[in-house]
Amino acid sequence: MTQTITANNIEAFVAEKPLVILDFWADWCMPCKIMTPMIQELHAASNDAFKLGMVDVEDQPELAERYDIQSVPTLLIFKKGKAAEKVTGAFPKEKLKRYLDKKIAESNHEG
């Protein structure tokens, strides 16, 4: 299950699990309309290996600015509560799955 992330709940959300991914998106963004359902599907299939939050950059411009989000879609990867990596743009589903599998494996290895 994904959660809408705001400036009010981001700190608690990213601290809850070793691996958290925030999807920065906008309603007007066509690549976001492709990526968001894919990442949600991959999240659902991951057996909760990571937490997924959604950040609408139009509703949360301060979060976009805080994390230097220059374009959407952008995935921001948090490891142990800290922003660790940023991936921008749309990708084919298999490439996104390989990337997420790698992040999950790294998180499991780091324990």
UniProtKB/TrEMBL annotation:
<keyword id="KW-0249">Electron transport</keyword>
<feature type="site" description="Contributes to redox potential value">
    <location>
        <position position="31"/>
    </location>
</feature>
<dbReference type="InterPro" id="IPR005746">
    <property type="entry name" value="Thioredoxin"/>
</dbReference>
<feature type="site" description="Contributes to redox potential value">
    <location>
        <position position="30"/>
    </location>
</feature>
<dbReference type="GO" id="GO:0005737">
    <property type="term" value="C:cytoplasm"/>
</dbReference>
<feature type="disulfide bond" description="Redox-active">
    <location>
        <begin position="29"/>
        <end position="32"/>
    </location>
</feature>
<dbReference type="InterPro" id="IPR036249">
    <property type="entry name" value="Thioredoxin-like_sf"/>
</dbReference>
<keyword id="KW-1015">Disulfide bond</keyword>
<dbReference type="Pfam" id="PF00085">
    <property type="entry name" value="Thioredoxin"/>
</dbReference>
<feature type="active site" description="Nucleophile">
    <location>
        <position position="32"/>
    </location>
</feature>
<dbReference type="GO" id="GO:0015035">
    <property type="term" value="F:protein-disulfide reductase activity"/>
</dbReference>
<comment type="similarity">
    <text>Belongs to the thioredoxin family.</text>
</comment>
<keyword id="KW-0813">Transport</keyword>
<protein>
    <recommendedName>
        <fullName>Thioredoxin</fullName>
    </recommendedName>
</protein>
<feature type="domain" description="Thioredoxin">
    <location>
        <begin position="1"/>
        <end position="105"/>
    </location>
</feature>
<keyword id="KW-0676">Redox-active center</keyword>
<dbReference type="InterPro" id="IPR013766">
    <property type="entry name" value="Thioredoxin_domain"/>
</dbReference>
<feature type="site" description="Deprotonates C-terminal active site Cys">
    <location>
        <position position="23"/>
    </location>
</feature>
<feature type="active site" description="Nucleophile">
    <location>
        <position position="29"/>
    </location>
</feature>
